[in-house]
Structure formats: C-alpha cells, structure tokens
Amino acid sequence: MSASKKKNPPTLRQQIFSAYMTAVLETEHFPTSVYKFCKELGIGEEQFYGEFGSLDAVRRQVWTKFFDQTIERIEKDKNYNGYTNREKILSFFYTFFELLGLNRSYVLFALGSDSQPSRQLAQLGDLRKKVRGYAKSLIEAANEEKQTKVTRHQPGLFSEGAWVQMLFLLRFWMKDDSPGFEKTDVAIEKSVNTIFDIFDNTPLERVVDFGKFLYKEHMT
C-alpha cells in the first residue's frame, strides 16, 4: 500500500472521544474521574486538559463531533452547493441520523440515562449552537439573493425552528424500531417540508399530512 493511501493515526482528541464512548458503553456510567480516565487510556492528565476542560466537556462535544462529521460528509457531495435550502436541510438531517445510527447504543444511553430532561438537554448545548448557526447561515445566504424585505425570512426564527425540529427527530428516532429506521426518514422528509411550506406560505396540506403521521405513530 502506498503512503498516500495509509490512514493517518488517530489524534489525541480522537482517542479521547473513542475511549470516552467505549467507557460509557462498557460500564453504563459516564466517567467522573479525569485521573482514572487518563490512567486507563494511558495518557497524562496534562494531555487531557490540553484538549478538554472537563469530562463533561467531552460529553457535550461528542455531539458536536457528530455535527462536524455530518457537515464534512454533505459538503463532499459535489452537488451540495447547488442544492436549495430545503435540499440542504434534508441532506443534513439524513446524514446526521445516519451517523447516529452507527453510534445508536451510545446515543440511547446518553439521552436515556437521566430522568431529568434538563440534564439530558444540557449535554446538547453545544450542538444547539452548531445547528442554529448552520440553519441561520442558510437563511442569511438566501436573504441576500432576495430583492425585497417582504420576501426575506427571519434567521433567528428559522434557526430556532431547526433546533426544535432536531429535538423532535431525536425523540422520534430513539423510539423508532422500523428496519433501517425507515420511519425516521419519513419523519425527516415530512417535518422539513412542513417547515419550508410554512415559511414559504404555501398551502397547508403538508401540515395536515404531517399531523396525521405523528398521530398514527405516537397515539395509536
């Protein structure tokens, strides 16, 4: 194998992420001691603190790692820059949940290990900033192309809507036991279309369709 085809060794940051997630899965507890964590990983505490300020920071940034990997993947698509905002958001959610599927055991434990919703959401704080920033950038770029203020959308409102949508899809995906998480794919498509239809002031048939879908999946 040529040198150009060899994979680069994992960085210290990547090693910490991997060891952290493995420790959670094997012990069914989040690590609480930096000393013990570093000892098991075979690194010094100073090395750890050179990358993260705390173990809680690792827990939060596992989620931003999923986000960053998602953006990296979708931007590799040579057609991505030519997508509409609706297509870009669809691509983002499809790819994000595909990555979560590869780490489902960790995600289910991370979001289901604490009965207090506030603590569950705390670990998603950094992800929220990333998702809102991504959605906001899409709307701001689209607004620049519009000639009148009347047709422009509010970036803050749209970005918060994208985050609420993320929370809904996370909860839906956690309960989805369909093959290949097919129902989650349907939920992504319907929810994204609903949001854009509302923003574009198009007929509300899709809103009704989406409501029926949610009722069927969660109330029957």
What would the keywords be for this entry?
71% helix; 220 residues; mainly alpha; 11 helices; globular
Short description:
With 220 residues, the protein is an all-alpha fold. It is 71% helix and 0% strand.
The class by helix and strand makeup works out as mainly alpha
| Order of SSEs | HHHHHHHHHHH
Query: What share of the residues does DSSP label as strand, in percent?
Result: under 5%
Number of helices: 11
State the separation between the terminal residues, measured CA to CA: 55 Å
The whole-angstrom Rg is 20 Å
Protein architecture, described:
There is one protein chain. This protein has 11 helices and no strands. It has helices at residues 12-27, 34-41, 45-49, 55-75, 85-102, 104-112, 117-122, 125-144, 155-175, 182-199, 205-219. Helix 4 packs across helix 5 (85-102), helix 8 crosses helix 9 and helix 9 (155-175) packs antiparallel against helix 10. Mean pLDDT is 84; it is low at 147-151.
What does the secondary structure layout of this molecule look like, with pairings?
Layout: H1 12-27, H2 34-41, H3 45-49, H4 55-75, H5 85-102, H6 104-112, H7 117-122, H8 125-144, H9 155-175, H10 182-199, H11 205-219
